[in-house]
Amino acid sequence: MTDRPGEAKGLHTIEMTVPSRLGVEKVIMAVASRAAFSMGFDEARVEGIKTAVSEACINAVEHGNQGDETLSLKVSMTLDPDAMEILAADEGRGGRPENTAPDIDRKMRGEETPRGLGLFLIKQFVDEVDFVQGADEGNAIRMVFRLKPS
Amino acid sequence: MGAPETQVRIDRKDGVSLIRYEGDITSFSEEAVLGSFRELKPEEHARILLDFSGVEYINSSGIALIITLLMEGGKQGQAIHCFGLSDHFRRVFEMVGLMRYTTLHPSEEEGIAGLNA
């Protein structure tokens, strides 16, 4: 990875295993931000990537690993010339986050929890997203960010 | 990691109460965001301007706190506007639909003027 935008030409993979606790997503965000910048994503896209990565990590910690801090969160980022793929895997037996669009009117009336926005936000900033089986027992969310969105 | 990372300061200008946030707004910010707001008596703080100019990071849990604040303020008849959001978080607020429940101003002065109009 380089410090200058658009200079990550070859294929790179960055792998991180971090403790499963809230707050750790900021470390992952910082790495993703630097990687995206080096690939040539503009500032607005980098901000979107940061939000998507952060929410994926929070989901893994809260839903997948169910707040168990003895578990880990594994993140891999594969950078190729055209796209960055990020996989965030939990180790838990927890479920996946709800895949429903938030209804702000219901939230404001107190008819649904004000939370539950994570997956919705992820979808706003990715070019592809799906859930896959993690390497161990858990789930993984796979996100793809293309330099030139299709 | 995990420590409260939101600083809050309350100011008053031209009859408007300003709640100024600095740092991150996340699930660790409940006391900072909702605690500080709930200390403001609605009859004395009918017009509130949220200052996000010192905020670096808001995640979905932080947005949930802002939704709760707006919901409680709305029930109490308080007018709550905002300024200082970055372009990215303005976009996020729009995506979530929050702009239907608050008004975003380009500056503190315009926010105060908007609330006093």
Oligomer: heterodimer
Overall shape of chain B: it is: globular
Count of helical segments of chain A?
Answer: 4
Q: End-to-end span of chain B in angstroms?
A: 42 Å
- Low-pLDDT windows of residues of chain A: none
CATH architecture of chain A: 2-Layer Sandwich
Strand order of the largest sheet of chain B: 1-2-3-4-5
The share of residues in extended strands of chain B comes to 25-35%
Give the ordered list of helices and strands of chain A.
EHHEEHHEE
Please provide a written account of the structure.
The complex is a heterodimer of chains A (150) and B (117). By secondary structure, chain A is an alpha+beta fold. Chain A has one domain (12-146): Heat Shock Protein 90 (2-Layer Sandwich), CATH 3.30.565.10. Chain A is 33% helix and 25% strand. A five-stranded antiparallel sheet of chain A has the order 1-2-3-5-4, covered by helices on one side. In chain A, strand 2 (72-79) and strand 3 form a beta hairpin. In chain A, helix 2 runs antiparallel to helix 4. Chain A is globular, with a radius of gyration of 15 Å. Chain B has a five-stranded mixed sheet. Chain B is an alpha/beta fold and 117 residues long. Chain B starts with 5 loop residues before the first strand and ends with a helix. Chain B has a single domain, classed as 2-Layer Sandwich (Transcription Regulator spoIIAA), CATH 3.30.750.24. In chain B, a hairpin with a 2-residue loop joins strand 1 (6-13) and strand 2. Chain B has four helices and five strands. Chain A binds chain B through residues 21-27, 29, 44, 47-48, 51, 54-55, 58, 102, 104-105, 107-110, 113-118, 120-121, 124, and chain B through 1-3, 24, 26-28, 57, 59-61, 63-65, 67-68, 70-71, 74, 86-88, 92, 95-98, 100-101.
